[in-house]
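Here is one chain, start to finish.
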Amino acid sequence: MVSPAPSLPKDFSQLSLTEAAELLAARKLPPVESWHPERAGDSAMEIRADGSWYHEGGRINRPAMVKLFSTILRREPDGSHVLVTPAEKLVIAVEDTPFRAVEMKSEGEGRTRKLVFRLDTDDLVMAGADHPLTFGSDPDDPDPRLHVRGALDHGLEARIDRALYYDIVEMALAEGDGHPAIWSNGERFPLVAA
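Its structure:
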C-alpha cells in the first residue's frame, strides 16, 4: 500500500528546511522501478510542456488525480514514459518534462546552501547528489532541470521555472569564483556544462 504525500502548508515560503526534510522522509512512493508487468498498452494520456495532464484530449482538472498518477510514473531507458503498476504498463506522452519546479527555498550560503524545490504536484525535492541540477551546455539558451527520481541517466526530471532559474543565477553570481555554479546539500552544480 502506498501512503499519500503529506499535505504541504499553503505558504511554501514559511516551511523551514527541517520541516521540508521531515516531509521528504515521510514520502513513500510505489516501487515502480521493480515492477515489470507483461501487459502493456497506451494510456491515452499526455503531460504537456506547461505541466498540465490530459486524458483522451481532455484536461485532468483534479489535482488529486494528477498527484496519484505522478506516483506511478516511470521513465524507461529508451526515454519513453510509462504509468506502471504490478499488473500493467501504459505509455504516456510527455511533451517536455513530467514535472515543473514552481517554488524554491534556499537556506545557507555557498557550500552550506540547501535548495528545496516544490513541484507542481506538491512534491518536495532537495537538490543534491541524488537530485542533481543541470542547466544545459548553451549559456544563451539555458535548460534548467532538476532530477526528481529514478535512474540518474534516464529518470524523471522537473523543468525549473524561469523565475527560479534567475534566482539561482543571481545566487551563483553573487558567490561566484569565475565559474558560476550553485551549491546544494554539499554538491556543486555548474550553470554551464563543460
